Structures are given as structure tokens and as C-alpha cells.
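Narrative of activities, Objective 1.

The group set out to show that a structural description can be obtained from nothing but a protein's sequence at a throughput compatible with the screening campaign. Below is one input-output pair from the validation batch, recorded exactly as produced.
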Amino acid sequence: MAEIVLEDLGKIYPDGTRAVGQVNMTVRDAEFLVLVGPSGCGKSTVLRMIAGLEDVTEGKISIDDTVVNDVPPKDRDIAMVFQNYALYPHMTVRDNMAFGLKLRKMPKDEIARRVKEAAETLEIVELLDRKPKALSGGQRQRVAMGRAIVREPKAFLMDEPLSNLDAKLRVQMRAELSRLHQRLGTTTVYVTHDQIEAMTLGHRVAVMRPVSAQRPYNLQQVAAPTELFNNPVNLFVAGFIGSPAMNMVYGSVTKDGDGYEATFAGYTISVDRTAIDRHPGIDDYLGREIVIGIRPGAFEDARIARHAPDRTITVTTDVNELLGSESYVHFVIDSRPVLTPDIEELLADSGQDSRSLGDNTKFTARVSPDIAVLDGSSVDLVIDTSKLHFFDPDTSDKIGATTFASGSEADSATI
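Output recorded for this entry:
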């Protein structure tokens, strides 16, 4: 096992394109850390630099206190699992798993022991004499992982290893990866664009975004999954983490005696003190336009929730999606869409044009399926205002968060 430290890591290609800027991060010994972000955010480039497959332009990479910038990949004692499996089609599963060990001229009995143990761990003993063409996608991925396991490396590097699998198999393989890490305890850096993979697999998750002139660094926030969800440091993280995405609307916060109120789209609701305490400095924004974030799960149908008129809004439903264990109510509120640079970047990544959003803001509420909600009906929704989020519309940063200067690592929302 190993600790991996990235210090001011940067990558600039010969044509001048910057792919990675000022990444400072420590992957702890035995940790499963996930790099997540949209296409082009540099996450795979960071992984390949750790592996030694990409040259480091700026900064340094250390593995167990040894700087490895100029160390060849084969001497870094890491094992990489690729998206496309990279199995030799003419070799059996046994030979694929043993190939790297044979190149190292390891004793045959030691090779046999490692292959057997890895196959038992991955439950592929019965596949050892088959060739890759006779395997399913999930079986091939297990073989690729087995080839990495037999090396008994200091760290595993995984580059979107589940992206070629169907949805059901991905769920199964996520659970198997978690069990595998619990058993082996090997330091793991895992790259994905799928936030569900990131949130279910990672001990901590590092959210990345493409570099820009305004933010010349990729790393936005490094934290445990629940911390990312509950305390996103800026609108980019808030909009990227969570499915369905966080609802965002322009509004304001004012003081009402000893309490606070939030106003948006013609609604005024009381704000729980917990939300105020999570946003130190909110008093400096009183009466000013801010961005208010509300997770879909912060709503509840008033017919089920405790009566709370000071936290209730009445909406006309547009579409209701019943998913069995939960229901998503979609509705529109009378407020212009939030279009900060962070949100426009997220829209572009999802293939949406901000001009198509119209003049109103679409909201989604997750409610209990126990009471039927008809399309086009009027519904009272109670908001858990302890879960409100407040952002500066000019900087896109969470109000009260320290600026994420130079991509410094953090383990909480206040960076």
C-alpha cells in the first residue's frame, strides 16, 4: 500500500493546451479515492501522470515519499485497469493474469499461487482455461482486475473500468469493487464521469472541471460523498453532484426579527437556523440577489409532511414520474433561469443550450409515492429549509466558503 501526493501538478501539451492546472492532493494509504468530472476536465490525464504514461509538465508526484516524475511506469509499483480490458485474445485467462509476472521472471510456483488466489477472490476459477472471446463483458473486466491484483502493487489506478458494461452489470460490479477493496485494502485511484459510481465507491471524491482563464485549476472540492452532497463549495459542484440535480433560483435572504426569511419567485419562507449557520457571512448578503439551491429531496408533499405554512409553497405540477419507491414532481416557477458561468459550463457538458431554457425555471421535487400527484394539479410542498444552500451569483462560490485558491486540497466544504 502507498500514499500518493500530488503537488502543484500541471500538464501543458506541446500546442499550448493546458489540460491540468495546479492540482494539490493526497491519496491516503489504503484509501479509495475517486476523480469525477465532465469530459475534458483532466481526470484521466492526472491518472496517466500518476502511472507514468504522461509526462509531468509542472509540479511533482510522490509515492511513499519518493518523487517519481522521472521513474519509468514499470518501476512505480502500480497496476492499472483500463476501460477496454486490454486482454491478449490468444491467451487463456490464466496466461493473461500471469503474463506480467512471467515478464518479471517470477518463480512458477509463486505465479501459480498468485493467479489462484486472485481467481478465487474474483470468483473466476472456472474461467482460467477460457480465452477472452468466450467471456462476457463483466467476466473480462474481472480478468483485467485479476491481472492487476496478482502483481500485489502499492496502488491500483482504474480508468473508467465499468463504462463498457450495461447498467445492471455496472451496479453488480460496483458492489464487487467495494468488497474487493475492503478485502485487499490497496490504495486506489479511480476515474469516472459517472457521479453514482463516484458517490457509491469513493471514501473521498475529488470533483474536477476543465481549466479556464477564470479558474486555472481543475480541482474543485475533495471530500466524503455525503459532504459533497450536503455542502458543495460552489455552483459547479452543487450542479454536478446529485441526481436529479439541485434546483437553483435567484432570490434573497432577509432578517425577520431573530429569524431569517428567503424570498424567491414570489414565495417567502422562513429559513432554519441550521442553514444560516452553514453560511457564515450571510448577513453581508441580506437583501442582495443571491442564488438559492434546493435539493429535490428537501421537498415533501404537505399531505404527508407536518403542517408548516411558513415553509410551504403551492405549485402547479407539470409532469409526475412515479418510480415505485419515490416520485419526482416537475414544475415551473416564475423566475428567470440561473445562468452563471458554472451553470453554463454544466449545461454545455450535458449538451444543452442555455437559450433553450426559456424565461422560467424548472424545478424537481422528490416526494413519497403514497399519494398520487396528477399532472397539472395544484400541490402544496413543504421545504426542509435546514437544507437550503446559498451562493454568490458573481463568483458562484458558496456563501461563507473560503475561495478554492490554487486548487488546494480540502476535506470539507470550506476550502
